[in-house]
Design brief:
By secondary structure, this protein is mainly β. It contains 3 helices and 38 strands.
């Protein structure tokens, strides 16, 4: 039913590109750090990693003639987790063509997934499940919210989510309504009910010209503001548009972004990355008219102005072939960016861009880290808890039968500047602990909150950190391995391992 991808050239490539001191394939994951699974027609759209290092994959499943909404879970070593769903997979068939396109991990261990169905000229599907993959009956109808309406023709290839905390979840997609192309946003409550925007079920933003669909076009920042970004193509000229909204859908006062063309060729936005200091970074690529593409990044301040300290007046444009089809991006602790995408040789590629919007040419071979994979396309990337491993998810196309393809790469301190498990004294001590934990004085002022999770992703305790207090009293729980999530000023979240002993040393 499945097979592991055997790519013996991986370590040779790492050595050739000079990355042995920064990135290495995880030898404990699949074969040489890669796994490939085939259930039929499988397209990877997004990946997430749970606190216990299990990997969730949002995918198109089923067959080419009847695709399904599919969520798969892998163990930390890449094996299928047979305890999740039915033999490792939750697959939903609503009688039409379905796909699961986005995932969100909730603090209590539950999983929120969304996607779409071709039923009723297009329906949005939202599912909430427990950590073991069983539907959460307290959400929607038996764990599902399925939304459609007359006159709504959903054309988007992907549906994307952004968290709104206690305000629920925002879901964005592209649709034609009464013949007019719209960027639509629906607001889903914590219980799975649709929350209207005024008198309308959807927030609608008209799109001028054409667009090739949206991918990761919505995000919420630390202030609860909603960011929407998309590209419009009119008369062979692409304009990038950005909208900032309050949680109620009203425009943010003082935000002013004028649509502009970041490149002379048609271009696409593929990722929004909120900035810790306010504003966002947009990542995408531009067609070059000769079958090649080049990376584009645009950085905005909170008021919508271009951050002129980034790239050239707020815009970085790579040369053709540099950042080819970069489709996913993450911000690192030093405000630099790591991007994944597709190289000119149909393989997974990584590129690093510095905080000032310039290529980091010390990374790999002239800024490029390439992993050979036959006819493969990377579509998602995420750091594992603890920031010591990187998961790259994508699809490998063999004949007309795509497979799920996941790579796991171990990171060293030179990439992120974060400590690896076993060096937790930089944030807290002692480890192991029994009863009381202390935050280190060196980092206490940057820590705003701490949460304690068990291996199932269930939150057991939470502390707000105030000046002068560096002591955390642990709850009375069994001995074992747990996870501490640190909310810091530099990064939204840092996860560390903690070994707890239920009796004194």
């Amino acid at each position: 039913m499945f097979r592991c991808a055997l790519l013996s050239v991986l370590f040779a490539l790492i050595a050739l590109t000079g990355l042995a001191q920064v990135l290495t394939a995880d030898p404990d994951f699949g074969s040489n750090g890669q796994v490939q699974y085939d259930w039929g027609f499988d397209l990877t759209h997004n990946v997430e990693v749970q606190p216990d290092q299990h990997i969730l994959i949002a995918a198109t499943g089923g067959s080419a003639n009847n695709t399904d909404f599919a969520i798969t879970r892998l163990k930390p070593n890449g094996d299928i987790d047979q305890d999740f769903g039915l033999a490792g997979r939750v697959e939903v068939d609503l009688g039409a063509f379905e796909k699961a396109t986005d995932l969100m991990l909730l603090p209590d261990g539950r999983i929120l997934a969304c996607g779409l169905s071709s039923a009723n000229s297009g329906s949005i599907v939202v599912m909430r499940m427990h950590a073991d993959g069983t539907p959460d009956s307290t959400f929607g109808l038996h764990g599902f919210l399925v939304f459609s309406q007359p006159g709504l023709n959903i054309t988007s290839s992907l549906v994307e989510m952004a968290a709104g905390s206690a305000l629920g979840t925002y879901i964005a997609f592209q649709a034609f309504i009464s013949g007019s192309q719209q960027l639509c946003v629906m607001h889903c409550s914590e219980s799975g009910a649709l929350l209207p925007w005024g008198n309308e079920p959807l927030l609608q933003i008209p799109i001028t010209g054409e667009t090739d669909g949206f991918e990761r076009c919505i995000a919420t920042d630390s202030n609860g503001k909603i960011w929407l970004a998309f590209a419009e193509l009119l008369n062979n000229q692409t304009r990038w548009r950005v909208v900032q909204l309050n949680p109620d859908g009203s425009a943010v006062s003082g935000f002013n972004f004028s649509p502009f063309a970041p490149a002379a060729y048609p271009s696409t936005i593929r990722e929004i990355v909120p900035r810790a200091q306010g504003g966002i970074t947009l990542c995408g690529y531009a067609e070059q008219g000769s079958g090649t593409e080049s990376l584009i990044m645009v950085q905005l301040n909170a008021d919508g102005s271009l951050n002129t300290a980034f790239g050239t007046e707020g815009v970085f444009t790579g040369s053709p072939g540099f950042g080819l089809k970069a489709v996913s991006a993450i911000a690192l602790s030093d405000d630099s960016f790591l991007l994944s995408g597709v190289s000119g040789n149909n393989g997974f590629s990584l590129r690093k861009i510095s905080a000032n919007g310039q290529p980091d040419l010390s990374f790999g071979n002239n800024g490029l880290f390439f992993l050979e994979a036959e006819n493969a396309e990377a579509t998602a990337m995420v750091l594992c808890p603890g920031d010591t491993s990187l998961i790259i998810g994508g699809s490998e196309f063999l004949a007309l039968n795509p497979d799920i393809h996941i790579q796991k790469i171990k990171l060293k301190n030179t990439l992120t500047g974060l400590q690896s498990p076993g060096a937790d004294a930089g944030l807290f001590y002692p480890n192991p602990s029994s009863g009381t934990l202390y935050l280190s004085e060196a980092n206490r002022h940057s820590i705003r909150a701490v949460q304690l999770y068990n291996a199932q992703g269930i939150r057991l305790a939470e502390w707000s950190c105030v000046a002068g207090n560096n002591r955390l009293s642990l709850p009375d729980i069994p001995s074992g391995m747990y996870f501490l999530h640190f909310q810091t000023g530099a990064r939204p979240q840092v996860s560390k391992y903690l070994h707890i002993r239920s009796s004194p040393f």
